[in-house]
Amino acid sequence: MSMIRDLRAVVRPSRVSLRKDGGVYDATRDPATASAVVDCAVYRDGRRLTTDAPLTPHEAMRLVRRDGGFVWIGLHEPTEAEFAGIAREFGLHPLAVEDAIQAHQRPKLERYDDSLFTVFKTIHYVEHEQLDANSEVVETGEVMCFTGRDFFITVRHGGQGSLRGLRHRLQDDPELLAKGPSAVLHAIADHVVDGYLAVADAMQDDIDEVETEVFSPGRKGTPRGTDAGRIYQLKREVLEFKRAVSPLLRPMQLLSERPMRLIDPDIQKYFRDVADHLARVQEQVIGFDELLNSILQANLAQASVAQNEDMRKITSWAAIIAVPTMVCGVYGMNFEHMPELHWRYGYPVIMSITVAICLGIHRTLKRNGWL
């Protein structure tokens, strides 16, 4: 059996459930309780132990220490008080605990004596009918993982990034789950990076749409341009995406290249696949940023050209109008001795000359592209 196919099969995006108030929670969490524990289970030989009642973290760890296996605890936005007991039970480092509670951390990998602390930023693409200057393109969340010899703890922040479906798919493949906590860490990393790939493809469509509008022909075959606010909005969302992707590349390379006693050797080499996919996403994000810079510069250049075109037209018409204005000004001076004033053909001659001069100026300016 190809392990890589199995590893990839269990990390497809999962769905979350919606509360009545519009929020998001994992369906395994009882809405009637304020507990941050989404799920707590013991796995032995790749299979979840069934119990008559839900296990507490303390009970689960006691079973592991007595009979072996490992415990996987999932939490959603725990408070300091809720997480304190779990931190003491599993001997988690205070600095990692503080990061897990406060959230808003950069993606990273930190090694402590008996555990690894990994931070992932989850990205979710926000569907929208039309992109505008106020459209939200991506939503972010966080998944923080504590990996130990016989435990795995996930702490989620934000409404996105539910791991319920991923847990169920892992449970359907005992051979993978038997590899221990490192298999779960790989599955989560692959799940998060696969989400990046999907978001990158969706953002590509938005960028292509803006690029098409910027360079599509408008009046008289000239580019019509677009609202610069839309481009700035996309750049902000790409920057948010970049903050999630770029810092994670080094941790994935470390997990795939450096031997670690908490990472099963059979699992470690598959982190290279995650790192390769992450590098691909990073290249796409960098390309998005550079392309948006070019699109923005082109849009600003088009706006400048359009303004110059308008100024040339205004100047051209001002030059044409200046001729009759000058003639009328001359004959409005009311001097007593002006030869043309009493000439029978003075008026039609002057008007004809004025019109001829105006038409000549108009033709010249139009031939030179000013009108």
Q: What does it look like?
A:
With 371 residues, this protein is of the alpha+beta class. It has eleven helices and nine strands. It has helices spanning 3-9, 57-67, 80-90, 94-102, 164-171, 174-177, 181-215, 228-257, 265-268, 271-330, 346-367, and strands spanning 17-18, 24-25, 37-44, 47-48, 70-76, 108-111, 115-125, 138-148, 151-157. It has a seven-stranded mixed sheet with strand order 4-3-5-9-8-7-6, sandwiched between helices. A two-stranded antiparallel ribbon has the order 1-2. Strand 3 (37-44) and strand 4 form a beta hairpin. Helix 3 (80-90) runs antiparallel to helix 4 and helix 10 (271-330) packs antiparallel against helix 11 (346-367).
Task: Map the helices and strands.
Elements: H1 3-9, E1 17-18, E2 24-25, E3 37-44, E4 47-48, H2 57-67, E5 70-76, H3 80-90, H4 94-102, E6 108-111, E7 115-125, E8 138-148, E9 151-157, H5 164-171, H6 174-177, H7 181-215, H8 228-257, H9 265-268, H10 271-330, H11 346-367
Parallel strand pairs: 5-9
Antiparallel strand pairs: 1-2, 3-4, 3-5, 6-7, 7-8, 8-9
Summarize it:
With 371 residues, the protein is α+β, with helices and mostly antiparallel strands. The protein has helices spanning 3-9, 57-67, 80-90, 94-102, 164-171, 174-177, 181-215, 228-257, 265-268, 271-330, 346-367; strands at residues 17-18, 24-25, 37-44, 47-48, 70-76, 108-111, 115-125, 138-148, 151-157. It has a 7-stranded mixed β-sheet with strand order 4-3-5-9-8-7-6, with helices on both faces. A two-stranded antiparallel ribbon has the order 1-2.
